[in-house]
Design a protein that fits this description.
The protein is of the alpha+beta class. The protein has helices at residues 29-36, 39-63, 76-87, 100-129, 222-227, and strands at 6-9, 17-20, 68-69, 96-97, 135-137, 141-146, 149-158, 164-178, 184-190, 197-201, 204-210, 231-240, 245-254, 258-260, 262-264, 268-272, 275-278, 286-288. It starts with 5 loop residues before the first strand and ends in a 13-residue tail after the last strand.
Length: 301
């Protein structure tokens, strides 16, 4: 019986999946894995591989003491640093291969060094050049009246100095529903947004889903959402105008993240004619809905 491979993946909705009986990894999966590492992890990986290769070749030189001219016999330090110089194709000239064995090992190490340098250079370039969306979602959803109708809202902010172009926003509801056969089935509902596109996305915007008769949330309470294990996924796809290249970001919420009868506080402050200050520290702040008429907001059309 073939042994099952197991892999754990995360989810923006807080659910983790243990994938069983998946196909074995291909060698090219290493490229994707290296790109998903953080910079400290990537640096440690490169350093570990570099150190391991030099130790391996240093061991070869150490086992054949007379293969390198000018090297002190059984000197591990000399073997290691000669490997470092050979791998980098520096060649200071004081030590050099003397025997056929030394020439063969040095030749293989030079080839490994050339290929390794090309691979590492390519990986570093890709990691630096790939576009990354500096987009932040609010930590919670708010559910409050808007223009006389209940609305589910989240806030999204662009942290770049330049505006993103052709921004497209989406929101989806995931919840458990019983079927006629008595089973529980996970259903997915796209939520219609008050607006789902912006030509330019400069700073902070509040995205709203109006809960009307056509909404899958119509008539539901937080208790109903808890019973159905309701979860939400929000996403934005836009174009970075500097590179230019498309970027994407997403965020997951659960029914626990909904703040009932709250609204997001104002983040804009007009400091001059047509000039606004945006306080990004207030992105997640909310306040209870009052009976006073709402102030004019600059963050939505």
């Amino acid at each position: 019986m073939r042994q099952s491979n197991k892999k754990t993946t995360g989810s923006v909705t807080g659910i983790q999946f243990h994938k069983l009986n998946v196909n074995r990894r291909e060698w090219r999966d290493a490229y994707h894995w290296l790109l998903t590492l953080s910079w400290p992890q990537f640096s440690m990986f490169v350093f570990g591989v570099y150190l391991g290769i030099n130790l391996l070749f240093a061991l070869c030189y150490y086992l054949r003491p007379n293969c390198i001219a000018g090297m002190e016999p059984l000197s591990w330090a000399n073997c290691f640093f000669f490997s470092v110089e050979t791998l980098a194709t520096v060649g200071y000239g004081h030590m050099y291969p003397r025997t056929l064995f030394g020439h063969l090992v040095a030749t293989v190490e030079i080839i490994v060094g050339m290929f390794g340098m090309a691979v590492i250079t390519g990986l570093i370039f890709i990691r630096f050049s790939r576009p990354i969306a500096r987009i932040v979602f609010s930590k919670s959803l708010v559910l409050a009246p808007f223009d006389g109708q209940p609305a589910l809202m989240f806030r999204i902010a662009n942290l770049r100095d330049q505006a993103m172009a052709e921004a497209e926003f989406r929101m989806m509801l995931l919840r458990d529903e019983p079927t006629r056969e008595g089973e529980v089935f996970r259903r997915f509902y796209p939520l219609t947004l008050q607006f789902d596109r912006l030509i330019l996305f400069p700073a902070v915007i509040t995205i709203r889903h109006i809960i009307d008769e056509q909404s899958p949330l119509h008539g539901l309470t937080l208790a109903d959402m808890k019973r159905d294990d309701s979860r939400f996924i929000s996403s934005v796809v836009c174009i970075d105008t500097v590179i230019p290249a498309p970027v994407q970001s997403h965020c997951g919420y659960t029914w626990k993240d909904i703040r009932l009868n709250h609204k997001f506080v104002e983040v804009y402050n007009e400091i001059d004619d047509g000039v606004f200050a945006v306080d990004y520290s207030r992105i997640d702040l909310t306040e209870e809905v009052s009976a006073d008429p709402p102030r004019n907001s600059r963050e939505s059309p």
